[in-house]
Amino acid sequence: MKFSQYLQNFWWKNNSKNFCLFDLFLPLLFLLQFLFIGVAKCRKFLLTKFFQKKLSIPLIVVGNLSVGGTGKTPLTLCLVQQLSQKGIKVGIISRGYGRKIDKNQSVLQVLPSSNPQQVGDEALLMSQRLQTIPIFVGNDRFLAAQELLKKFPQTQMIISDDGLQHYKIFRNAEIIVFDERGVGNGNCLPFGPLRENLQRLNDKNVAAIVLNKNIQNQSKNQNQNQNQNQNLNLNLNFFESIKLQFNNRLPIFEMNIFANNFYNLYLPNQIISATDLLRKNKNSQGKIFALVGMGNPQKFFDTLSALNFDASQVKNFEKIIFKDHHNYELTDFDFLQKNDIVLMSEKDAVKCRFLQWNENQKPQNFWVLPISVAIPSSLTDIILEKINAN
Which of 366, 341, 336, 334 is nearest to 283 (CA)? Predict the structure, then answer.
């Protein structure tokens, strides 16, 4: 086991009770946690008091306290759509994680046709979904927002996808997202998965908490082994404790993820239901590979499992996990045989679409699972109330 995997297991309470050589490092990690907390607090104080800049229009940050993906990007997409329906002209800024940065282009506009290596996979995914919404990426989000306003002066509000700890820019409202993993062991880096502790929820700019419970998968998860049951119960208890602690002060919303039909990676107009895709695989006798490169890959596998794509339902089913924001190459697919099917998320698809296959080798069975989220529209009302109150 690699040390990185050991840390992930320890953070999210998946570690074995058996002794491991890496356990010897835990006292050091525990002490380093306090150094991390101290540096983080000093950094936040200095940035907010002396270096923070404010935009001419409201900024909303959608972020999380823990490392890894919690569902920020799907929530951002949903918020933009709801705000647009209210007649508000919205723009999006993001760092564009995973992109190759050109020093001569510190800020880039993201278009549906942009190269993911230049703008980042999540930003490109949002652009392809939203089409007409202006999206800009940059390490300095303030510069990205300024460039957005320069080119789209009619913009009335900007949403930052991630950037909760980017204190160089003032935010009028913050939406903090938790997923079913909760806060893991509840500690800060490197002893735990948190960038900031739960006291951060008391900050005046926090407008709401969103719990990404992914309810559709819970019944299947409860049929798994005892350790996973215990972890699930701990996470559900975390959600309940969050409600008890903050429900009187902060609005708390539950976000659910839905998915049903797949579309073909290279023929996007070709759509197939999960049931028909399972039947297609059964008739072909090939393997099904579930491929993912994201911060919390289990979320993708759980969504597939809810559609009956897992080892218990499919005879030849295999998971392939890449690191978050992985840049795909043709050699990543050397395992493929003629009748195999590959399932992937939209985040992975925006990069795989750029692969330069030989025309006679371009795969026909790469299928993309788009997801949508459901969240009460009252969340946008809360955001607008928070902005007007500031």
Answer: 341
Q: Does the structure show a pLDDT above 90 at 298?
A: no
Q: Could you tell me if 300 and 262 are in contact, meaning their C-beta atoms sit under 8 angstroms apart?
A: no
Is 314 in a helix, a strand, or coil? Answer: coil
Report the sign of the C-alpha dihedral through residues 167, 168, 174, 175, in that order.
Answer: negative
Residue 225, pLDDT above cutoff 60: no
- Burial code (b: 16+ CB inside 10 Å, e: under 16) for 301-310 equals bbbbbbbebb
Is the separation of the CB atoms in 198 and 183 below 8 Å? yes
Residue 190: is the preceding peptide bond cis (ω within 30°)? Answer: yes
Burial 335-364 (b: 16+ CB within 10 A, else e): ebeeebbbbbbbbbbbbbbebeeeeeeebe
Taking the C-alpha atoms of residue 64 and residue 71, their distance in angstroms, rounded to an integer, is 9
d(CA 186, CA 12): 9
Give dist(CA 382, CA 15) in Å, integer: 39
Q: What is the mean predicted confidence (pLDDT) over 107-122?
A: 94
| pLDDT tens for each residue of 233-287 | 545 577 788 878 877 789 999 998 889 899 999 999 999 999 999 998 888 878 9
How many residues can be counted in the chain? 390
Helix locations, 340-377, DSSP H: 346-352
* Burial 47-65, CB ≥16 within 10 A → b, else e: beeeeeeebebbbbbbbbb
The residue type found at 165 is Q
* Parallel/antiparallel/unpaired status of strands 90-94 and 135-138: parallel
* Model pLDDT for residues 11-50, shown as the tens digit of each residue: 988 776 777 899 999 999 999 999 999 999 999 999 999 9
Strands of 59-63's sheet in order across: 107-109, 135-138, 90-94, 157-161, 59-63, 173-179, 206-212, 252-258, 372-374
The answer to whether 205 touches 171, Cβ cutoff 8 Å, is yes
User: 227 and 186 in contact (C-beta within 8 Å)?
Assistant: no
Please tell me whether residue 342 adopts helix, strand or coil conformation. strand
**Residues 6+ away with beta carbon under 8 Å from 101:** 139
Backbone angles phi, psi at 137, to 5 degrees: -120, 150
